[in-house]
Amino acid sequence: MQSIPLVAVDAAALAQFCADAKASEASTPLFAAWVEQTQFKAAPQTFCLLPSHDVQHPIAAVLVGVAVNKQGVVDDVYCLSHLPFGLPEGRYHLAKKDEKGEAGLPATGLEISAALATLSVGLGSYKFNRYKKLSRAPALIDLTNTPESAQAQRLVDATTLTRDLINTPTEDMGPAHLAEAAEGIAEACGGEYREWVGDALLSANFPAVHAVGRASHRPPRVFEITWGNPAHPKIAIVGKGVCFDTGGLNMKGADGMRQMKKDMGGSAHALALAQLIMQAKLPVRLQMLVAAVENAVSGNAYRPGEIVSSRKGLKIEIGNTDAEGRVILADVLAYAAESEPALILDFATLTGAARVALGPELPAVFGNDEIWAAKFEAAAKSERDPIWRMPLWQPYQAMIDSSIGDVVNTGGAHAGAITAALFLQRFVPENQAWIHVDVFSWNMKNRAGRPEGGEAQSLRAAFQMIATQYYAK
User: How far apart are CA 333 and CA 368, in angstroms?
Assistant: First the structure.
């Protein structure tokens, strides 16, 4: 199968391409006329198929509109993501700047790094097809293999893992299924796996996890992956794994419950980040922890007004059973802190308040350590994987004080994302570096490289933060 060249252009490069085509002695003047006739302007997320005189191979090349930064470099993560399912099926490749090809292609076009191309094409090639057959295969785009592009492919794989776990309905992604996925990742990457299930959570001192998950016919569990040299700095990654959230006895309405299969999105992020760290062989001692439950309704469901014990010993008053994520995280955060890691990083689809404040695309980040928070923000900027830091406003601690316990799991009508983070902070020692990421884990609409459904948010940034701190030479 003939491979068709892809030529990346912005408005300036397109003008030069057309000028070179008009001046060519080969057949390329046709290209300039075609660009003018189709009114292609090289806008990002667009492309133009250039015709060939060869009826056996009617597409000579494809012009791909891209944007460049102030340094004239293409750095948009999604610059090529519209191509896999936008181009006709076939084989393509990124044209080198000096490539002319059999069709007399002008030696004009912008360079895109192999790593960026791999990431962009990979994100755009994703479709969740576990239950529905694809109507077509993505276009095959051949990319250059480099060490950087290999790491980019691992980022694609981790994003795919996150999306697949979130998109899978709860019937096929309950606590046991989630644990099975974790065990498979541990085995593939050389990690050690263990878990505590059902009433074993009580003897292992995870009472809050047990209280939230006991009403389901599928028992709650905590599972753990450990990996790496114990002498290396320890990193603890924690994920909220509420595989379905009815709201419990404070039951959600129909609209609020519709997408609650995604309430385990934090655990999907934790698993994907653990996979990235192990695959990259970073010089860290990794601990990955997930509390996996269904927040269900039955005769033994935990109730509003109850006092729930926690691993740390704090007594949690249940103001609302629909604020269950922070309750289960309390136990695993306390467990993670016991070994005094260099950093605890947790991911959770925790609050609607974070979405009200920042919308669905921007994860809210809270942290008690300025150095780590700054590194996370720097990594998010360099990876073009946005986050937004929110304040751990200590005066709001009063909102979660309980009159009959140590802390209540609801903070009233205001500052819901902040009071949720403050609740979690009570289960982290004061001198323990900790970052909390409140993610939506979902795309509400289809966009290039970001299909509707489950999504990895801040995953690339989190990996880059840790890799930069503990880079393996």
Answer: 14
Cα-to-chain-centroid distance, residue 82: 19
| Count of C-beta atoms within a 10 Å radius of residue 435 | 23
Dihedral angle over CA of 367, 370, 375, 380, nearest 10: 50
Supply the Cα-derived Rg of the chain in whole angstroms: 25
Contact 58, 90 (CB under 8 A): no
Residues 6+ apart with CB under 8 A from 285: 226, 227, 228, 229, 230, 231, 232, 233, 234, 235, 341
Mark whether 312 is an active-site residue. no
Q: Which neighbouring-strand residues pair with 285?
A: 234
User: What's the rounded Cα separation, in Å, for the pair 346 and 315?
Assistant: 22
Give dist(CA 469, CA 343) in Å, integer.
11
Q: What is the distance between the alpha carbons of residues 452 and 156, in angstroms, rounded to a whole number?
A: 17
Of the residues 100, 127, 154, 252, only one is catalytic, namely: 252
Q: What pLDDT score does 449 carry?
A: 97
Q: Could you say which of 312, 326, 355, 460 is catalytic?
A: 326
**CA 182, CA 194: separation in Å to the nearest integer?**
10
Neighbours of 264 (CB within 10 A): 36
Query: pTM for this one?
Result: 0.96
Q: Which residue has the higher pLDDT, 356 or 108?
A: 356
Given a cut of 60, whether residue 27 has pLDDT beyond it is no
Half-sphere exposure of 9 (CA within 13 A, CB side): 26
Count of residues in the chain? 473
The question of whether 285 is a catalytic residue gets the answer no
Q: 280-299: string of b/e by CB count within 10 Å (b at 16+)? A: bebebbbbbbbbbbbbbeee
200: nearest Cα among 189, 185, 191, 213:
213
Structure tokens at 401: 């004080």
Q: DSSP assignment, residue 120?
A: H
Task: Dump pLDDT digits (tens) for 277-334.
Answer: 999 999 999 999 999 999 999 999 999 999 999 999 999 999 999 999 999 999 999 9
Q: Please give the Cα distance from 68 to 98 (Å, whole number).
A: 20
